[in-house]
Amino acid sequence: MRRLLFAVLLPIFAIASGEETKPMHSTRFGGFFVDKLEYRTKNKDLKFHIYSFYGGDYHKLWVDVEGERGLKNSEWLLERADLLFVKAISSFWDLRAGLGYAGSNEGGRSRLVLGVKGLAPYGFDVEANLNLTNKGELYGKLEAEYDLLLTQRLILQPSFEILASTKKIEPIEIGSGLSKTELALRLRYEIKRELAPYVGVSWERYFGQTKEMVGERDLINFLVGLKTWF
Amino acid sequence: MSFHRRELLKFMLLSGLAYSLPGFSALRRLEVADFKEKEGLLEYTLIIRKEPVEVGQRRGTGVLVNGLLPSPLLRFKEGKEVVINVINEMEEETSIHWHGLYVPNNMDGVPGVVFPGIPPKGRFTYRFPVVQSGTYWYHSHSLMQEQLGLYGPLILEPKDGDPIKADRDYVIVLSDWTDEDPHRILSKLKKYPGYYNFQKRTLGDFIREVREKGFSQTLRERLMWAQMRMDSRDIADITGYTYTYLMNGQTTQENLTFIFKPSEKVRLRFINASSATYFNVQIPGLKMTIVQADGQNVYPVDVDEFRIAIAETYDVIVQPKEERAYAIYAESMDRSGFVMGTLAPREGMRAVPPPKREVPELTMEDMGHHGHADHGHHHHHEGYKMMLDVKKNPFGVDADMVVESPRQKLEDPAVGLRNQKHKVLTYSDLVSAEEYPIGEPSRTIEIHLVGNMERFIWRMYSYDGQRLTSRFEDLIDLKYGEVVRFAIINHTMMHHPIHLHGMWMYLDNGGDALNPRKHTIDVKPGEVVFVNVKADNPGLWAFHCHVLYHMDAGMFRVVRVR
Fold first, then answer.
1. How far is CA B407 from CA A38, B185, B307, B528, in A?
2. B190/A23 Cβ within 8 A
3. N-to-C CA span, chain B
């Protein structure tokens, strides 16, 4: 745990260290991104993915929060609330490591996260994470999305994700083996680069144990949402 | 008085022509600064303040000299000494750099390199002998103030009369104005490099191209770009989406007018004082005779159009014969906008802009992919064999592409200006009017311009055969008196205007002693440019990309001569 703290804190100090007068400066920059905030018609819930980062070209501190919350009932599922240290490891890829929490109203897990995120050839945004929980469960998720420009502001975004686990993790609704896949299509309009409402459709499939746990069959949701950042 | 009042009046007249000035914000027009002259010494006083600037409907904040956008014109005279008192009335640091002037090191005005900058509410007095003549400019080298209006023309009169004869002499400062804070712009670009580009390829372009070229070829081409994760429409980082392009501070609507009488010879001194915009300049209906580049007289060459990189200057002579309005038309390189003035026999005329051309698009050739050239025939087109081995990207995260076999492209008008029906200036056309036998270089230093478009990282690596570095702290050492060849290699898909302070870069375009010398060299995507530098000015000299945002992001090095 101490080593982990070092891993997180050292880069913070590195980032915070001062700069002398230079005619140019290594820029520190940060942002707050609501990547997804959407109402799902069938689940009648809000799904969100919010992240924020601060840092430089090579190292960043990153907070990633993703989950869903019922609007009628008070059920919630926090897929992740992670604090990550991000290091650029190649032209297009970042290595991400840190710790976080995943849970629901039925309890949860602290976990270590190790992942990569970047731009794959042909322009696919890809993110892959491995998670190790405090109970020793290992599970992973792979996501990919693509921006297809219909016009300069109207953008169609197909996306795909797949979730698999070595063990059953009851409180966060993950069964062992192949657990879940999701295909989605979102059509957004960038009023400004920073402000893009969208509509979409998503198709979730649950497999094996997960299917038993969730007690639902394949789910098709229509989506209405907003993507924004600053 | 060595200055003719008549000449001054001419400039005043020029600036007085445009008068649509809102009362409560800065004056946007070119004025001539007042000076005092005593004992052969010219003395100017420049006061730097922040002032509101209104362009169209948008109100921004300018960092201005004497309340003017652009900064006032300063006239120096070769052989005399100048004193410039700079008074900083702001709460932030500032500086002034004399772009292209051969000055003692401590007068060069680069904070963090040659002096600590002019502190808030502080003063600094520049004093140096003027040892050259021609068209130059000055600008801030602090806190991105260059984007905020701190730029102005320098006209240096030759000691023994000007060999370039003209009936009228006008200065045209081209610039890009935005009401956004440049630091915000940089932060946006870091997070979203395509933020300002609204000319990206869409599905519609794909369908159109399928109709023109067929499905399989279109798909093959697009897949190549997609595979590289590059955008062939990425021509300018910042575009007409936020920029209003200005000519002597005036917009196209304000119709800046330059007066001529038919058959008069009119000299136009173009200065590109932009922060992030290259311009293509035309005066449809007139041949432009290029007579000077970067303040240096060149053998006259007639062109219909020229591209002016950021920080370059070109002087042209035109001789309009007809009694009509001509457009002085400067479009941004990506064609997302333009600024136009009018060359007219009288006030109140407005020229018609030429038809808009298609959005320029990079080719695989620009990316350093040379297709299947048949060997043996085109020996001079063989790529430059670099000292640095780039097989395994030695730049790491900093580079999203590496050009293995860069070529000289001095005859290439480059993206957007190829295959024009008219003559476009290229660097191969420039022949120095003066002979400069500086001698043969004794060694080569490679400068590798690299970038990562996805992360908006920009770096300038040096490699002398032993050490590869891009750190600001690692000086590029030259021995006083030696001649060094710089091989500047562009591994990116963008143009970079590379500027060396304090010394000339003799552009090797095959002219030997008649190679043109420049202070700013445009290096095209995938190109290698060779320049010789005679290390004849001791001190620390900035060596950087003049795209303000590339410089600020790290494309900046220091050359040390001792």
1. 51, 33, 20, 5
2. no
3. 39
Locate the chain B residue with the closest alpha carbon to A32. Answer: B191
Distance CA B153, CA B316 (A): 16
Q: Please give the ipTM for the structure prediction.
A: 0.90
| Chain B interface mutation, best of A54, A87, A91, highest count of B Cβ atoms under 10 Å | A91
Do the strands B483-490 and B443-452 form a parallel or antiparallel pair, or are they unpaired?
parallel
CA A209 to each of CA A80, A161, A182, B407: distance values in angstroms, whole numbers, following the listed order: 21, 18, 17, 60
* Paired tokens of B160: 């023994």
B94, pLDDT greater than 50: yes
Nearby residues of A65 by Cβ (< 8 Å), 6 or more positions away? A48, A49, A50, A51, A78, A80, A81, A82
Contact B203 A57 (CB under 8 A): no
Contact B457 A27 (CB under 8 A): no
Find residue B69's DSSP bridge partners: B28
Q: DSSP secondary structure string, B185-218?
A: HHHHHHH-TTTT------HHHHHHHHHHH-HHHH
Radius of gyration of chain A (CA): 19
The string of pLDDT tens digits covering residues B194-242 is: 999 999 999 999 999 999 999 999 999 899 998 888 889 999 999 999 9
Nearest CA in chain B to A25: B552
| Residues of chain B positioned with their CB less than 8 A from the CB of A25 | 552
CA–CA dist B248, B410 (Å, integer): 30
3-state secondary structure of B284: coil
User: Is B472 within 8 Å of A22 (Cβ atoms)?
Assistant: yes
Across the A:B interface, residue pairs with CB atoms under 8 Å apart total 88
- What tokens appear for B17 in the block? 């022509």
The residue type of A198 is: Y
Q: Which of A24, A32, A94, A195 to mutate to test the interface with B (most CBs of B within 10 A)?
A: A24
